[in-house]
């Protein structure tokens, strides 16, 4: 869960801010669940209807005229909670700076030049990383609009009471551990008698967990020609809390080796690809054949520290509603026994 | 989806191929009457039995196979007297409170007139009041314990209405009073016909699975029902085959209607089994199961099943498989629209919200405005795209217009996901979102009163705090 840490206000003004900041993690929206009530069969004609049945559409996710008895509907619901954050996923979040001045309030304040800045503090680095704020600058046709855009995106926007400035950030999660999203809002506040630039900063902390554990094992295979041949096996364990579908598992071979997978992508004629589904705790075993490519004068590949390095394993998966995850292992190889 | 994580590891992966495949009733051993011993169920047995998953259950349905015709049996044999006093005990039915109901829905205008009849409560969408009314009628001393038609109709109303006012957990407790749905006590002694209406039996299966905290029970209960429907279907088909030689047109038409009913029931049970697997979070099992279903023979059959598969694949995250489901879909308009919905959802799954939005816009533009279409869903999904695209003002405007359309001739929508999404956007828009959310609840209450006064019924039904994130 994301915890909002105590708002660190960088100016000493005790007066409440005219701008509020609200955030929502933008995981994928979900399909709405419905539990359609069973209806009498044969359906009674309206005239002889016993009047003991609720309207058929009452149990549907939205007023559809089709009486679908399936639990999933195509209607989208926004994410209800922060959920879990996993290494390999893209963390998306929307930030809203809102003008909280009540329309028609006595103190005639106006706010202008509202800007949002966002940084991510990751476990391995003391220096926070500056995040790009979307949406991208929109397409412009004329020069005046360019200036307008620059004013809007480069130098902040003017917000009328009750209006919001919305930004979206995307960040690729690569490390386990505590992350802090730091958001700074700057704006100028003008009253009849004075004007000042005000700023505040809010911190949102969340923990990023591993979702995929990869264990590998290499074994030599008998080889007819001179170069070596190995089988690289890997166990992929879903240690997250969500069901995922494996999208691609590739052994990216280094120069001097070639590999080919003998997994689900190998199809018999007429078969369709059936991607493995891993429920929490499930393990999928994959295997690759690795062959050494000999140098021009039949020279074998040089071991490094007693190991031959084949390459890295890169995994891609999709979680609920297509949420993508990517992961690459470190160097994989075999010990040279001589 | 309720979280049922703890079931994950306990659930064995079982092949779910079964008697639900309607095409050939003789191919499946489960459907053959000889495969099951003719066994009388032991009446209403002790509740402890329900805590263990049942093996292929004592199936009184199998004695139906000896009935020459379902239809003639009912008309010629007298009904036996059976009493169901165990469903009339007041202690079964829990009191319902308004504790979870937002204040705007507790006002006199939002409440039904006192003494309203059950049909009028149901028509007005007063499901909480209807649930209370049903239990009052059930526990009224004047109700004859042998009037099974009335009793079961009221039990259905009670349970159905509880699920519609966010009290499914209570329904799951109360449904236990039905005990063993396959009990011989629920069958006519002469004909073997189940005395409960079909819709109650289907509803009770899911609720009992929840009530006994045994999710697999639900799946097995559907299989029991499917077995019976298949047996009946086989009998009807056999009768039809012998009849067609003699050529009695009226009887033949009757049998064909019956055949359609049983085929329809088998189709529906297939979808319900898949839904039950999804509800227990076995999405993979559900996907495998859906693959085994053959599309129904009706016009919308094939595309409907493909559509359902595609939604499930999207849930699983297998976007390519979802797209493949609609690749072969026909180009007729309504099916075409369903394919567009899957396309647009697939773009969202790929995080291409900018590609999804124009599809929803196009679907909205090409929809009639009489409310007899899927336009509410298109608009809601477009609004969700807007939010992900950083266009929160457009998102808010689209949802608010869906609630209170302009022009006012278009129907208002008040469904849960709409008020939930709008409340989420209000929370993003201001620190004072509570006032906006209460305002939203007031607006919805007003719309429901208007709809009821307009005689349009209250399909929107009951609202709870969770609908407005209050």
From TrEMBL, chain A:
The record's region (Disordered) falls at 32-62
Q: Where is the Trafficking protein particle complex subunit 13 N-terminal domain?
A: 17-208
One GO cellular component term noted in the UniProt record for this chain: TRAPPIII protein complex
- Which domain of life does this protein belong to? Eukaryota
Compositionally skewed regions (Pro residues) per UniProt = 37-47
Bias regions of kind Low complexity — which residues?
Answer: 48-57
Which residues does the UniProt record annotate as the domain Trafficking protein particle complex subunit 13 middle? 229-332
Please give the InterPro entries that the UniProt record associates with this protein: TRAPPC13, TRAPPC13_M, TRAPPC13_N
Q: Which PANTHER family does this entry report, sorted A to Z?
A: TRAFFICKING PROTEIN PARTICLE COMPLEX SUBUNIT 13
* Protein name per Swiss-Prot or TrEMBL: DUF974 domain-containing protein
Annotated source species: Amylocarpus encephaloides
From TrEMBL, chain B:
The answer to whether UniProt assigns keyword Glycosyltransferase to this entry is: no
Compositional bias, Polar residues, is annotated for: 24-49, 57-73
Instruction: Using the record for this protein, list the coiled-coil segments as residue ranges, or answer none.
Output: 226-272
Ranges of compositional bias, category Basic residues = 1-16
GO cellular component annotations of the record: Golgi apparatus; TRAPP complex
Keyword check for Coiled coil: yes
UniProt keyword list: Coiled coil
Q: Which InterPro entries match?
A: TPR-like_helical_dom_sf
Region entry Disordered, spans:
1-73
Q: What is this protein called?
A: Uncharacterized protein
